[in-house]
Amino acid sequence: MGGVIFLQNTEKAFRRFAAQGVDTNVYMGAHGQKGIFLDLEEGKITPEEFRRGMSEIVGHEVSMEDVAYCWEGFFDGAPVDRLHTLLDLKKHYHLGLLSNTNPFMMALTDSSRLSTDSRPISDYFDSLFLSYEMKAYKPDEKIFRMALERDGLLAEETLFIDDALKNIEGARRLGIHGLHVTTNADWRPQLFEIISPLRSEQ
Questions:
Q1: Sign of the CA dihedral running 124, 72, 66, 53
Q2: Does this model's pTM top 0.85?
């Protein structure tokens, strides 16, 4: 979701967490979330438990609003033209969103605040596969396997798009086709190179 569907601003989010006293190098490194941050995205703790845990880490009480403000720093808007492309693709393909995410981010993205279209992200997909709900986290093969089984999809007929190569590799281990894209870049030209020949055969 972040860096593919919406524009991701990691530096802004890190600044917000750091301003609260979180050592982002410890909990939010380049290789993914750690500690309570990972626990939140794996569904092992609730948002309230995360708030209490973050308060303990920083040594002062933080509110749910403080926590949401920090997480929402990752969000830099969703390009409407890409969202419209998803609606068009949805007419021809089964679209699923598979994301390492948490309730704070979904409260933002699955609402009218996602874009100027004022539509939640769930409007653009047939299925949402969210790490905290599925209790699994990319690139673990488990989350890909669960998504395939839940929607009755065949790996060889499925294309997974992500801006993290390790996640692409996790999907490929199950036989899922992978498309690695640059964070925040427009992925549509690469996608159309793959699916245009397929659609011409239909």
A1: positive
A2: yes
**What pLDDT was estimated at residue 28?**
85
Alpha carbon 27 to its chain centroid, in Å, reads: 18
Mean pLDDT per segment of 10 residues, for the chain of length 202 residues? Answer: 96 97 86 89 98 98 98 97 97 97 98 97 98 97 98 97 97 97 96 76 48
- Taking alpha carbons only, the member of 196, 134, 191 closest to residue 162 is 191
The answer to whether 6 and 75 are in contact (CB under 8 A) is yes
Q: How far apart are CA 62 and CA 191, in angstroms?
A: 42
In whole angstroms, give the CA distance from residue 190 to residue 192.
6
Tell me which residue has tokens 């390009």: 79
Q: Are 155 and 148 in contact (CB under 8 A)?
A: yes
Q: Residue 8 forms beta bridges with which residues?
A: 75
DSSP collapsed to 3 states, 120-144: CHHHHCCEEEEHHHHCCCCCCHHHH
Q: Give the pair of three-digit tokens for residue 42.
A: 């794996």
CA distances to 59, 71, 92, 150 from 15, in Å: 17, 11, 41, 38
Cβ–Cβ under 8 Å, residues 195 and 177: no
Q: Which tokens in the block code for residue 10?
A: 């990691």
